[in-house]
Structures are given as C-alpha cells and as structure tokens.
Amino acid sequence: MAKITLEVSDELRDQLAQIGDRLPELLALSLQQPPLPARIYQYILAFVASQPTPEEILAFRPTTEMQTRLQTLLVRSKAGELTPCEQQELDEYERIEHLIVILKAGSLPHVNPTT
Question: Residue ranges of the domains in the chain?
C-alpha cells in the first residue's frame, strides 16, 4: 500500500482526524464520479417522468450544451486525443443515445401520420 503525504489546513486536519481509518474509503468514493454531470441525467429523467406523448418522444433532442460537448468529444476521438475520462464520457453519451433510440422506436407505432 502506498503512503501519501498532504499539506492541509488545521481545520481540515481536525475533520480528517474525526473520520479516522475511513479516509481511504472516502477518497475512493469521491473519485467515483458519473461520467456525465448530474444535470444531463436530470434533464433526461425529467423528460421521461413527464409522461411525454409519442410525438414528444420523437421530437426529444439533446440540449445545445450536450450537442456541443458530444461534437467536441467526437472530434477529439477521431484525432485520437481523448483522455480516459473523456472516453468514458463519450461511451456514456453513446449508451444514452442507444436508450433514446429504443424509446423512440417504441413510440413509432403510436404516432398518427399526418396527411
């Protein structure tokens, strides 16, 4: 096991002393962040929870922020410049896109064609 030395404020030192042997566990948990910001998941969940009509499902699109970030990731991926964290982020966007495609495909039989 590696040993790490850190300089921290006196206040933080006191807080760390209170958690004792749990510091490695808490550090590990703090590093396990989802690949995308919470607001992305909240946007999608809020949409699904709103009980959208089949037409609204078909019209659902990512936010401008999401589209811009995805475009950046795709460009960096093509150039072979993605960091491991960016690759995880791109993979998560692809998983979400796959779920949305499935959701939209399930809505197609319920949409009335306009004539």
Answer: 38-110
Burial of 87 (0-12, 13-18, 19+ CB in 10 A): middle
Least confident of 1-10, 15-24, 106-115: 106-115
Distance CA 11, CA 45 (A): 38
pLDDT, one tens digit per residue, over 43-94 is 999 999 999 999 999 999 999 999 999 999 999 999 999 999 999 999 999 9
Q: Quote the CA–CA distance of 3 and 5 in Å, as a whole number.
A: 7
Q: What is the dihedral of CA 50, 51, 52, 53, to 10 degrees?
A: -150
CA distance 104 to 59: 9
Q: Tokens 């995805």, residue?
A: 70
